[in-house]
Design brief:
Length: about 80
């Protein structure tokens, strides 16, 4: 499980640093609700809201109404607290 936490943390950090594609590649290779949530966030950021909603449903979440920076912070805190 720790491996996934490390990979998901890396995906979030890559996204923060402007490497959306590499972040997306990482989460595509992990099957877990946590990766689905990050996947949803990434597609929300991309503007692909239909795709984003699909991944939020897989993560058992709804698309937030607050901004992307707040969601990134929430994700990062959640993932790194594991």
């Amino acid at each position: 499980m720790r491996r996934n936490v490390d990979e998901l943390t890396k995906a979030l950090e890559l996204d923060r640093d402007g490497d959306w594609d590499s972040a997306h590649t990482i989460v595509q290779g992990i099957e877990s609700p946590d990766s689905y949530w990050i996947h949803a966030y990434l597609h929300r950021k991309e503007g692909a809201l239909g795709n984003s909603n699909y991944w939020y449903r897989r993560a058992k979440k709804t698309m937030p109404e607050y901004d992307l920076d707040q969601e990134w912070n929430e994700l990062y805190e959640y993932i790194t607290s594991k």
